[in-house]
Structures are given as structure tokens and as C-alpha cells.
Amino acid sequence: MEHRALRFDPPQITLHESPVGTLYLKYVEDVSKSNQGGIKHCRRKAVMHYANAENPQQCHIRMLQEYTSLCPPEGKQNAFYLQPRRKYEESAKICFTKQPMSQNSIQPVVPDLFRSAGIVGNFENHSRRVTAATSLYEHDVDEQLIMKRIEHRSVEGNQT
Fold this sequence. Notes:
Elements: H1 2-5, E1 13-17, E2 23-28, E3 46-50, H2 60-69, E4 82-89, E5 94-100, H3 103-106, H4 109-116, H5 127-138, H6 143-150, H7 155-158
Helix pairs in contact: 5-6
């Protein structure tokens, strides 16, 4: 549902520049009454992804800019994931319709990405957080940094 609710306007993903000139994307989630602690006590989750200068082909900023350039300008409002066009318009360079993808279309995307990357297992959208935490732990990243990144409040939560 989080992916289905992602939208361009009002933007949840914005482009920023750090004080040292590094570009990064910042995702800020919507506040919901289902957030832990209730709506009065919840903080909006904010996640930053920095530009990948070493490997521009895998840079989130470049990928987002390319994706948005292929979307119709008038369609980038209520949804982030737009349905692909059946016929590509070479002259217009528009690959997506104004219509949002359905939840059934979005759901298999993450498991397909895992399979394409050669990661074997039964994965769902939540699995990417667990996989990221495991990978960081295996590469000796500091547990406090892992906790911050995946938003666990205790070391025990990291180890589950």
C-alpha cells in the first residue's frame, strides 16, 4: 500500500543538495493513524539516497530523472507508478500513461527485482528492509547506523 500511495504531487520524493554540494533524494512518508504511537506522537520517516558518482548507471537521482522524463507532465500528480503505454511514441518520448498502476501490478515488482538480481527466496516488499539490514550487518556496518537506517529502536530489533 505504501508503494501504491506514493505520488508526485504533493511530492514525497524531493531533490536536495548537501552543504558540501552532494545531491541526494529525500523521501518523507505520510503521517497515518496506523503509525506506532498514534498520530499525535508519530514522526514522519525520512530517508535519503545520495548520488552515486562512482557508478552513474546505478544512481537513484539519474534513474528518477530519467523516469520522470518519460512520464506525461499532466499525469504526474496523484500517483508515482504510472501504467506503461502499449505503444511507445518515439516523437513524444512518453512511455507511460496518466493512469496509475494498479496494486496488483505493483505487488510483483519487488520480488521480480530480487529474482533479477540473483537473490533467491520468497520475497515481498517488506523483505528489502530485512535484506538491507542483513547485508549491512555482514559488511560490519555499525549497529547504530543500521538501526537508524531501518528505523529499529533497539539492538534486539536489528537481530531479528
